[in-house]
Amino acid sequence: IRDATAARDIFKSYTKNRNNPKVNLLMRIQFSHPVLRQITSLKEFSELLFGDEDYLKNNFLRLYGLNERPRHHRLHGITYNIQQWTTEDFDNSITESELEEVKNQAENVIYKWMFSNPSQYYKPYVTETPRRFGKLQSKSFLSLEYELMQALTHAVSAHNEKTFVGFGEVLDNLGIPTRSMEKILSSGDRSATVSHLLKAKSTIVSYILDGSMTEQKLLFYDNALEKIDEYLATRHLRLFEEKILSKTGYNKKLWGDDKIKAYHVITLLCRDLGFDPLSFRPLNPQIFDADSSTGVFARHHLDILRKFSIYLQDLLLTDNSQHNVYESYIPLEDQKILTKIMQDLIQNDGSGPNKEITANDIVKTFLNNFEDSKTARHYLENYWQSGDFRENLREFNQRREFIRNGKYEEFLLSKYNDAYRRFFNDAMGILNSLSSFSDIRGYRMSKVFSIADIAYLRRVFNI
Asked: Are 188 and 108 in contact (CB under 8 A)?
């Protein structure tokens, strides 16, 4: 972009086609802002909009396809490129605030053009008479559907590193089995379903955790999650979301992901020192050796109604036999209290030498957390103090020092070598991604991880 003084007519060769909708769209984009009117050639304009200096001439405006109606995804591909413009694309001649204005103006042209339903096309982009909530709505009612479709397309484009992704491909990538969402603009008689949006949400979260994160990708993922939440709220689908989550249980896509499993094992081992909060006994290292004959570890959801959650605050690590005890015999509120007691003992100073935890500290912590002293004594006498309590307390204090001194890797190597070998690298991949998130201004990690999770991860892993 060289000429900063005068607008150039870069569409001279299309003089006879000025009324063509596609030519008209491009001209509107160019004239949407003074900065864009300074573009001096069709090749430069093509590079900005399509990432290819020959794409306009050879594809979008090719003679034999000039009257073809551009599909939704082609237009979303243009906005995908627009959102990635930088001041360098304009020879650093504009400020960041001016750049945002240029982007917004250009995107707004595309939005208005689509909603105008150019009369030359027999098939409209947006229905003129959407019916929703039992009555006819104005066409602008569907602007939220437009923003949702665009955000989902951008998220998949970012993940696949591919500018022009058809909406069928978008749905396939997001794990949505039907094509009903393709018609939410053109038919306008139904909303996107909650179950489909929850699948999209879990897939985008998996994108965030897959280790290929960049700041630009995160912006697209973050926007898609925001648009899903906005859609659920505005279309009054939140109640249905909660019902579906409670009914369906596990988010199988995320729950079964090997990296999520690794992240859970490593972070929960470090959080609770490898101790079971119900029994105050160290988990057997062999349950992590991938040999079912020596036992199997289990990720346990405290609340059966939150089995969809991957939050650490909703989980504890135990073995397969103890897992059944939790689910069948231990009330939810007691599980939460036992988990909190474990954290109080790890984080607070004890009354023993070098601030170690003593038996008296444990009794005091139980009485401070359980309102009923009988319940406190029940868990102390029947679970924590059964077996070799003194040896378990000695082991607890030793492990506690590892974690309090930031030596989580030494702790894992020393106490859970099989778990370290199987899971550490994948877990650290996710934790390293979280570290990069915290460096990105304005990104709220609580969209993916609970606030309590983030506080713990920062304290122990310094993310």
From this structure: no
Burial of 400 (0-12, 13-18, 19+ CB in 10 A): buried
CB atoms within 10 A of CB 3: 12
Which pair of structure tokens corresponds to residue 281?
A: 């006994």
The DSSP output letter for 1 is -
Phi, psi of 429 (to 5 degrees): -60, -45
DSSP code of residue 132: E
Give the 3-state DSSP-derived string for 156-219, with helices as H, strands as E and coil as C.
Answer: HHHHHCCCCCCHHHHHHHCCCCCCHHHHCCCCCCCCCCHHHHHHHHHHHHHHHCCCCCCHHHHH
SS3 (DSSP) at 275 = strand
Q: Identity (one letter) of the amino acid at 83?
A: Q
- With H, G, I as helix, E, B as strand and everything else as coil, classify residue 119: coil
Torsion angle (degrees, nearest 10) of CA 224, 146, 172, 159: -40
pLDDT in tens, 123-138: 999 998 888 777 888 8
pLDDT of residue 149: 93
In order of 140, 141, 232, the CA distances from 194 in angstroms are 22, 19, 7
pTM: 0.74
Q: CA-to-CA distance for 13 and 20, rounded, in angstroms?
A: 13
- How far, in whole angstroms, is CA 67 from its chain's centroid? 39
Q: Are strands 281-282 and 297-301 parallel, antiparallel or unpaired?
A: unpaired
> Residue 153: CB partners within 8 Å, gap ≥ 6?
72, 73, 76, 77, 80, 165, 167, 170
Closest among 333, 419, 417, 427 to 379, alpha carbons compared: 333
**Token pair recorded at residue 147:** 């923003």
Cβ 131 vs Cβ 188: under 8 Å: yes
Give the integer Cα–Cα distance in Å for 126 and 188.
8
DSSP sequence for 293-350: GG--EEEEESSGGGTT---GGGEEEEEHHHHHHHHHHS-HHHHHHHHHHHHHHHHS--
- The reported pLDDT for the residue numbered 48 is 96
pLDDT band at 55 (very low <50, low <70, confident <90, very high): very high
The pLDDT assigned to 444 comes to 55
* Residue 404 in tokens: 């309090």
**What is the rounded distance in angstroms from the CA atom of residue 296 to the CA atom of residue 291?**
8
275 beta partners:
282
Backbone dihedral region for residue 62 (phi beyond 0: left; psi -120 to 50: alpha; all else: beta) = beta
